[in-house]
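#random but structural
TW: two for the price of one
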Amino acid sequence: MKYRKTLYENYHTTQSGRASLTDAKSLFLREKVRFSKEILPELPKDKSAKIFDFGCGSGSMLSVCQDNGYEQSTGMDLSQEQVDMAKDFGVKGVEHGDALVYLKETTEKYDVILGMDIIEHFTKDELVELLIALRRCLTPNGRLIIRTPNLDAPFATVFANGDFTHENYMNVSSAQQVMMACGFQKVSVNASDMSIDNPLKELIRRFAFWELKILYKWQLFATGRSTRDVLFSPNMIIIAQNG
């Protein structure tokens, strides 16, 4: 698609850095804190695990892996600007390239493949193609760990439509559906981290979110729907095991 060449070339300048209202290094460090809470606990205990981060951006998730002893962790991103930033921030093993093309052609096998805020950038056809390629590149019982916007979240359009390059949106049900259809097993979907560093603000946020969840659950109940597989966090963490 032609728009991708224009928008991805300077993605940090036009989107991720602009939307976060911060400089590149501050955003990088903030993402590391978030990923340490959300993703690090899901990684294997074996530090020799081979990890690939497709669409790794500035390398914040890879940096978390490498800081925690996962030395066989590498990544790829389509944006040269973000790859250059990753290298400037000391992240190792980051390459510039089209991860989808790489995953379809490589003979490498990984214990874990990560995709942070990336699958929403693919069309539905492309996403199915991508997931099949990802599963092929996983070892038996290997894990795919993905973070993506959650369409069931309050004000979901702030996150889903806040980036012009987003192509598809999912909730818990559709995430499980597409993962299982593409051959993954033991698919779980978790809420993303929403914590705030300031203790007082975090306390207020927790109370406000608790009230908000009650309101939304009442609305679902009133329409005769179950709240069992509904998350309200802005993002969701999808963990799928290769069967």
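TW: number two ↓
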Amino acid sequence: MGNLKKSLLASCLILAVFGLAFLFWPRSHYVVPILMYHSIGNPPSPRCRLNSVSSESFNYQMSFLKRHGYHVISFDDLVSGLKKGQSFSHNTVVIEFDDGYENNYTRAFPILKKYGFPATIFLVSGWVGKKGMLTWDEVKEMEKSNITMGAHTQHHPYLPRLSLAQAQSEIAGSKKIIEQHLGHPVDYFCYPVGGFTEEIKRMVQRDGYKAAVTTNRGTDRFDHDLYELKRIHINNSDDRYWGLILWAKFSGYYNLFRHFKCEGGRLKGYLYE
């Protein structure tokens, strides 16, 4: 009974806080949630265990979007709309994956097709074809079913620790390799571990990318900078509290709470990343 009361209390707090967001916060604070996934199913290595979502949870989360009438748009549509100053509806989300794990094809892809959802996969070009990772044939097949490919460097380094020449090689080289294999431009970039500097951001822009995503936290920017678009990490724990965590993360106001902690530990790990 004690755990049930705690769960009910946490649920009420989440519902109250995000309900207030819709009533009182400026429309300019709303951002289209970019839902960040990595590995789906059993993690291919211990390194990515924390970034894995089970197949069951992923299916539940996609069915949640479908049941509740969310408008799942492509990354292309998001960037195009932001450039035009488009006002997106509050039930809009984008789905993306980092790294290019093989289970994005074997586990996530069938579920995305079932619900008719577009998505973007940011490939580490030097990992394609290696054990546990996507192959170029799988990438090409997914592209035929509304899955867009982006670049995530050649070897997944933390870019701010590299020399400018090394960072340039990782950023431009990844784009070149993926374009050679796919035969069309690659327009979007993902900073490994969300790390970038102003110079790295300028490199990404100069190399012809139209937008880039990070994991940058904070509540101080709502100007929709196309080269530092924030994402929201999705995990198995988000299925708890009768879907209220998912509703909060999908709300478009979640970035306002990414530094929020409950000192008693009731919400820690759910509203804080």
